Amino acid sequence: MEAPFLGLSLVLVLLAAGWGNGAGAAWATSPGGCRLVQSTATCNGRWLNSVPRNLQDEIEELLLDDNTIQVLGNASVLAYQKLRHLSLSKNRLELIEPGAFLGSQGLRVLSLADNLLFTNYSVTAAALSALPALRKLDLAGNRLTEDMVSVLLWNLSSLESLSVARNIIMRLDSSTFTNLIQLLELNLEKNYIFEIDQAFEGLQRLQRLNMAYNYIPCIAEFDLTQLRVLNVSNNAIEWFLALESDDLFELEVLDLSHNQLLFFPVLPRQSKLHSLLLKDNEMSFYQHLANATSLANVTVQFLLIDGNSTNVTTVSLWDEICHSNLSSLRLLDMSQNQVWYLPEEFLAKMPSLTRLKLNQNCLEMFHLPEGDALAMLTDLDLSQNHLSELRVDLSVRGVLPSLQLFNLSTNRLQVLPARFFTYTRKITTVDLSHNRVDLCPQQAVAGKVANPPCVDIRGITTLTRLSLAGCGLQGLGSHPFRGTSLTHLDLSDNQEALSGGLGWLQDLTLTLQVLSLRNTNFSSTVVDIDFSGFQSLICLDLSGNSLTIFPASLGILKLHTLDLRDNCLPALPQDVIWTPLGKSLHEVYLSRNPYNCCMLGWWDSLQQVEGLHIRDGQEVTCSYASRTVSARALPEPILQGCRWRTADLALLYLVLALPTCLTLLVAFAIIFLTLKQKLLKMVKSQCGVSSPY
């Protein structure tokens, strides 16, 4: 009985030897259940109530997350002299004794997130002060107030990265982060901060500051010149005012999204800003507030209250914006605001702009600036506005020469400027969905002198993706896509788009890969619906139509994705899995069709096809005797009923055929007996044989 135990001991000795010299097995399991991989010990989720003491003394990283440790006692990690990274997140840690980190002078990363350190924070502060090499500290989710944070951080001048997110900090002042002279990154998100009073003046090296999800009402006299990234999204900010200074700000990213900004922020005059995020505010421009045609003398007064003193500052907001150097700005997101126009020269100040998002505003007209103002722009989103006009000076050559993606969906457009796309030489994606536009050429209509305006995309060789969903397309002429190489086309929600068949798509048979015909009134009675020519098609959406029969022409296609939801199909072909379609399909959508529970042989076959995913398989139902049940698990009574129906049908055929056969047999017998003598004489006369009588 001792041999197995001896073998186990030998294995453990060999593993230990391999760990010590860096050779042998790449990982091992310690007696405490921790996994050892090179110099990292992972003990997460082991229900440990203390630090294991039987691990290899050479470990540099110890992960003890999601355990039940309440106290980190003196000399808890004394055995691990080379420890550089210790994580104790998601424990029940209430106390770290002053001598807990004896022998861990080289500890650089310490995570204490999601614990209960508020209970004995002053004692814990003494333990943290014994870590001279600590560079990164995570105190998130410990119910800490600003006073507790100040005590915990008092002697941590070596810190470069600090997180006190998800605590109950309400106010920041100059005493909160005293002595953190090396700090580069500070995370304060998801607290209750509503006031900041010179809290960051001593953080001369701070580069990244995250104060998202707080209650900050405004930011005035922003003067952190060394800061590179500032995230103050999801607050209650109404004003952002940078310090009036010609000093160069290192600011590269400013996130003011999801606030209550009333106007465009007053930015530093000189900065390196390349990303400005202003999404979801209440921002607008304010010429109409002054009831004037010129903003030269329009000013706004700010009331600044500091303790018992009140100052009124008068500034010309638009002049300040004009003086801001935005030449390095590459991303501007002003979506979900109340912008109904852009001031003149606004975009001309941003020659490096590559992405402009103005969707979900109140724009009624958009004027593309002249010259090279947007020469670098690749992505322009004007969707979900009230646009009825897109104005451009076509005398200027090369309008939006770098534009690749243009989203104009959900507006009131009926036409685009003539020859507009001939100037966008790199355009690949256009979304015109949910506008009342038609494509050129239009089908001639008797009685009409002239056709209404249309959008001409013919000859745009770079265009590969086009959405025309919900445009009310009808009466399209021949070859509207001639000269294009579309691979993705969305025609969904056009009730009359297929009234004349698919002939007007003939120029796309070689290139089209993704086609959406959702909710296009497509039915099995529509003539000239033949998909066999679209041999490059890999994704087809036919959902929301009135198909009663599976289109036979689909069988020869090699689709990867097919959507047949919300149709009127009672069944699919039994041999669909043997067709090129059945062999190429990767995913299919089949729900919300009135399938017959007694005709599910195709369903069983599809479920056995290797590599085919029925994405909505749980939702596929069938009907039996006015009942709707899941096709995945038919009740036994329904299965028996289907078998009886099949048997009854065979018996019915037999009953119907038997009388007919008997009738024919009797009739033949009567005819034969009646004409027997005549038939015999006729045979004899033909054969020329005399009777023996």
From TrEMBL:
SUPFAM superfamilies: L domain-like. InterPro entries: Leu-rich_rpt (IPR001611), Leu-rich_rpt_typical-subtyp (IPR003591), LRR_dom_sf (IPR032675), LRR_TM_domain-containing (IPR050541). Keywords: Leucine-rich repeat, Membrane, Repeat, Signal, Transmembrane, Transmembrane helix. It comes from Apteryx owenii (Little spotted kiwi). The keyword Nucleotidyltransferase does not apply. It holds the Pfam family LRR_1. Gene3D superfamilies: Ribonuclease Inhibitor (3.80.10.10). This is Negative regulator of reactive oxygen species.
